[in-house]
Design a protein that fits this description.
Shape: globular
Oligomer: single chain
Distance between the termini: 52 Å
Strand content: 15-25%
Order of helices and strands: HHEEEEEEHHHEHHHEHEEEHEEEEEEE
Mean pLDDT: 82
Number of domains: 2
Largest sheet: 7 strands, mixed
């Protein structure tokens, strides 16, 4: 059985760092729970232009003689947006005393039955790699979906709970900030209002019925653009309360069209609506409930969740994520501070996300 190692021996050479960055990048960018929702634009520098083709109109009249026909019906129109990559950085500090108490149990989780055969250095590398990968993956999902450059704490008039630093959300505007702004601006017209979000207490907000969950999923589909409904990569992503309520509804009701409420992808059965996969994210759903709330400003003060039930119908191409290189995390440093008995893993990566055609997504909140 491997003994508890001294983290002062955690010395990762440049080649090991390279392997570690590639492994974590694959864990983030090649995870099916990422690729089903986003495409990845690579090699993107700051302020890189995104060209959007909004060409429309008709072409072709019957010829009437020698004069050239110019119907005026063709409208070639290009719009533009910009990627604005930001660098996300943090450091994971591992204290020797914490490691002494908890290391064996944690490493068993990641090394499983091989734990007894691992050398000290292998064991601690497995532990550190797993934890860094987990934090980076969660940072990606949090910023992609819940980033908000204007986020602030409730006590300052914002919606981030007072126990959480808003800096975890302010690096960029994520998908929900962008689509909510586009609904307000009238750009996203496929919108389903969720009345349950407007209840006066958190308990009432949480009491979403199965019928309400079904109506939300149906509304996302019914109000979607026809091209989106026919896109083979389209999906419906909803928060966990809606997802579980929708499954409960399906178990108690038979939908017309039969198999349209269930599809098989790569041999795995998935919940669906009209053949469109219905997905959820426990991480995003929990983050919305844990990190955001709204104050009524009264005395006594009553706080409610900030749109706890949400849904979006889109495709990976409509919600891309940009990075410099999906094969790599920008940099990882590992070093040990003797006087503090701490091993420090520092990482950074570049990213941005853009809802490229907010007029084509269908949302509910």
């Amino acid at each position: 059985m491997a003994q508890i190692p001294n983290i002062g021996e955690l010395t990762i050479n440049p080649e090991e760092v390279r392997d570690l960055t590639q492994m974590i990048a694959q864990f983030v960018y090649q995870d099916p729970n990422y690729t089903k929702f986003h495409t990845t634009a690579t090699g993107i520098n700051r302020k890189t232009q995104i060209l959007l083709d909004s060409t429309s109109g008709l072409a072709g009249w019957k010829a009437t003689g020698c004069a050239a026909i110019a119907s005026g019906g063709m409208n070639i129109k290009l719009a533009e947006k910009y990627w604005d990559l930001v660098t996300i950085e943090d450091s994971l500090e591992i204290c020797q005393s914490d490691l002494d108490q908890n290391f064996k149990a944690l490493v068993k989780k990641y090394a499983k039955d091989k734990f007894g055969d691992l050398a000290d250095q292998e064991a601690i590398n497995i532990y550190v790699t797993a934890k860094v990968a987990q934090f980076i993956k969660e940072a990606h999902e949090r910023l992609i979906w819940l980033g908000d450059k204007d986020a602030s704490n409730v006590e300052d008039g914002g919606k981030v709970v007072d126990t959480i630093d808003p800096k975890f959300f302010t690096p960029l505007d994520g998908i929900w900030r962008q689509v909510m702004d586009s609904v307000t601006a009238g750009t996203t017209t496929s919108f389903t209002n969720i009345a349950r979000n407007e209840q006066a207490t958190k308990a009432l907000q949480e009491a979403l019925t199965d019928n309400e969950a079904f109506a939300i999923v149906k509304g996302l589909y019914d109000k979607a653009d026809n091209a989106l409904k026919l896109d083979p990569t389209a999906y419906i992503r909803v928060t966990a309360g809606i997802y579980n309520g929708y499954k409960n509804y399906l178990s108690a009701n038979t939908l017309s069209g039969g198999g349209l409420s269930e599809i098989t992808v790569n041999g795995i059965k998935q919940v669906a609506y009209m053949g469109i996969p219905v997905e959820t994210s426990l991480f995003e759903s929990k983050a919305i409930m844990d990190y955001f709330e709204v104050s009524d400003g009264g005395s006594p003060e009553v706080k409610t969740y900030d749109f706890p039930h949400r849904g979006i119908m889109a495709t990976p191409d409509l919600l891309p994520v940009a990075t410099l290189n999906e094969e790599d995390i920008s940099s990882i440093e590992a070093f040990y501070v003797q006087k503090d008995r701490k091993s420090i893993i520092r990482f950074d990566f570049d990213m941005d996300t853009v809802v490229v055609r907010p007029d084509k997504v269908s949302v509910a909140y």
